[in-house]
Amino acid sequence: MSNHPGNRTSSHSGHTTPDRTGLGVPSDAERLPMTVPSLMEHKQRGEPLVMVTCYDYPSARIVEESGVDLVLVGDTAAMTVLGYDSTVPVTVDELLVLVKAVRRGLRSPLLVGDLPFGSYEVSDEQAVITAQRFVKEGGCDAVKLEGGGVMIERARAIASTGIPVVGHVGLTPQTATALGGFKAQGRTANRAFLLVKDALALQDAGCCCVVFEAIPAAVAEVVMERIEIPVIGIGAGGSTDGQVLVWHDLLGLYEWGSPRFVKRYADLRPQILDALRRYSSEVRAGQFPTSEYTYSIDPAELSELRELLA
Ligand code: KIV
Prior knowledge:
- This protein is an alpha/beta fold.
- Helix content is 39%, strand content 12%.
- It has helices at residues 36-45, 57-66, 77-80, 92-105, 124-136, 151-160, 176-179, 189-204, 217-224, 247-251, 268-284, 299-309; strands spanning 49-53, 70-73, 110-114, 142-144, 165-170, 209-213, 231-234, 242-245.
- The longest helix has 17 residues, at 268-284.
- Bound molecules: 3-methyl-2-oxobutanoic acid (KIV).
- 3-methyl-2-oxobutanoic acid binds next to strand 6.
């Protein structure tokens, strides 16, 4: 296996290639790199976009093979990988380590890096400098930032430098305190109106795509009737152009519960725990390693060694 999954120079009109797996997943060789223009082509063809978060190299190799369209190194890494109790403390330098590892493992999905709290809000200049680090040092294809209001200007500033920007409205975890906690947004006519306005303003600011998080499905449908850029939903119902889920949620890697909108596609934590317990018990019982897992030496060499030591 090569350590370098390849370059992304090829462009194409359409990400989907013939399916030889029967699961809608083209093989490694058949898969073409996803590009920003091809996001729009997917939307126009009505082909749902699949996005997942990812935070390290081995997971990126699996994600690559799975054939998803977009990968987000989310600031959720703060909680899922780094053990902080919110997304607020994670720094650009911490996230860049993860982004670079994921970049090394990916070839075809579009890689989006999440700008963490405090790294883009202060000024357009700060936003552009941070976004450039994600592209230049991290190898991201696009960056994501949270919020409407003044953040629309930050999105415009970044997009104007040629860096593709993904917006994020609805529940924006970086500012969850101001929103009254981790709860669904846009549940009154006035709040939903502001949300629609923010989504359309992010589009006008040049965003190539926008994430809707934790909003009523009917509100998402209202925006979908008006918006032209692709929309990726998480807890926003089925009308959006695609879906995103967090790696640890969809694979069942934590013992605690997940938000209402999470579907667990696997329950890996018990399997990992079981493997670790069997390993511990075999080491403690002297059952591992057996000769199968051990190097040998020519008996003559061994005798010579003993003579040398005598
Ligand atoms: O940081 C993240 O993982 C996200 C997704 C939940 C969209 O923003």
